[in-house]
Amino acid sequence: MVVAAIKKKPVRVLMAALIASGLCGPDALAEWTPRRTLAGKEQFLQLFPVSDQTVWALTWQGGGISPSYRVHVSLDAGSTWTRRQVRGLPPDFMAYDDRIDAFVALDGATALLSGTVVDGVGAGVAHVYRTGDAGRTWREVFAHPCGVCRFQIGMADGRRGLMAFNFGGTDAKHPAGQRLYATHDGGLTWTQAGIADPVRQGSVGALFVKGRQAWLQGDGQLYYSADLGVHWSAEPIPAEAVEDNGFGRLRMANRDYGIASSGNLLDLSLKRPDPGAWRHLDTGVPNGAVGTLALDGKECWFSMPLDSVRNFYSDDHCASFQPLVVDPQSAFFTLGKAWRGRSLWGTTRRVLYMDRRSP
User: Are the C-beta atoms of 74 and 35 separated by less than 8 Å?
Assistant: First the structure.
C-alpha cells in the first residue's frame, strides 16, 4: 500500500523564535520537516536511513506478547511510503524499543530484523530475519538459544558486515556468553570464520562499523579493526564508562574522533585528535536517560525523550551543547545520518522528521 506523506510547514519558524529567545544558537537552525506521521496507537520503534532518498522505519502497535510490527519504506525522501505488516515471525516474537534488537536496511528492498522468542520463564531463542522484497516476506537467517539477548549489526556495504551477539544462559548446555559473526552475502549467512573475536570475558558493549573500519567495546576497553574484524588493537576508555558497564552507544567519524554513551543515564565519553584519547565529557546538561546519539563532522546530537523531553546539539566538535527543539511535544527517540548520504532523519513516537542537508 502506497500512501502520500502528510506535509506540514518546516519547523524553521519555531526554531527562529527559539533562537531569538536565546534557547537555541543560530547554527541549530535546520530545515527539519515532518515526512511521516502515524495514526492511532502505532509508534515508531526503529529507524534506518539508507540514503538521502531511501529510508526504512519499523513501527509497532500494542505490546507485551505478540505485538504487531510494520515496516514503512520510502524511496523518494519521504514523499510517498509503502507500509507493510511484518509477517512470518513466530507468534511470541519480541522486539524491544531500547536498542536490544537490531534493525538494518541495505537498500530499498533488503533489511535485517532481530528479536527473541521467549517462553515466559526467561528461556527462548534469538532470531535474525531478512527480507529481500521490501518487507513482503521475511526468512530466518540466524537462530541461537538464549535468555536475555542483544544483537548489534553493522554493515560495511551491501554484502559485508559484522554482528555482535550477547546471550543469557538457558541451561547447562547453553551458558551465557557473547559471539562475533561476519556476513559476506548481505546477511543471508553468518559465520565466525575469517574474523577474530577480541572480547575475552563478559559481554560486548557497542559495535560500530564504518566502511572497513570497526569498533567493538568489551573487557573495559575499546577494540579497533581496520580490516572488518580480522585484526584488532585495543585502547582504554574512561573509568566512568567502565564503571557504567562500558559503551552502550558509539558513533565514530574516524579513528581519532568519536562519541559514546554509557549506562541508561547521561554518561558521555569523547575522543578527539587532541589529546588523542578518550575522556569523560561533562556537558553541563542535567542528568537524564539518553535516548539517541548522532555525530556528523563537527556537529553532534543527543536526546532525553523521557526526562527533559529535549534534544541537545553541538556544532563545535562536542565541546558544548545547547537545546534543539524540533517537535515542541517530544524529543527524538531515534536519530541518524543517512548511511550513504548527507541527510539526517529522526523520529519521535509519532512523527518522522528529515533534515535535508546540502552536500
Answer: yes
**Which helix (H) or strand (E) segment is 242 a member of?**
helix 239-243
In the chain, what are the domain boundaries?
Answer: 1-85+331-359
Cβ-based neighbours of 89, under 8 Å, separated by 6 or more: 69, 115, 127, 129, 138
Q: Which string of DSSP letters, residue by residue, matches 50-100?
A: -SSS-EEEEEEES-SSS-EEEEEEESSTTSEEEEEE--SS-TTEE--SSSS
DSSP letters for 291-342: --EEEETTEEEEEETTTT-EEEEESSTTS--EEE-SBTTB--SEEEE-TTSS
Region of 253 on the Ramachandran plot (φ > 0 left; ψ -120 to 50 alpha; else beta): alpha
- SS3 label, residue 356: coil
Measure the CA–CA gap between 165 and 355, rounded to whole angstroms: 32
pLDDT digits (tens, 9 = 90+) for 80-112: 999 999 988 776 666 543 333 789 999 999 999
* Residue 337: Cβ-neighbour burial (10 angstroms; 0-12, 13-18, 19+): buried
Asked if 352 contacts 44 with a C-beta cutoff of 8 angstroms, the reply is yes
Residues 23-41 have pLDDT tens digits of 444 444 458 999 999 999 9
Q: Is 209 helix (H, G, I), strand (E, B) or coil?
A: strand
Whether this model's pTM surpasses 0.85: yes
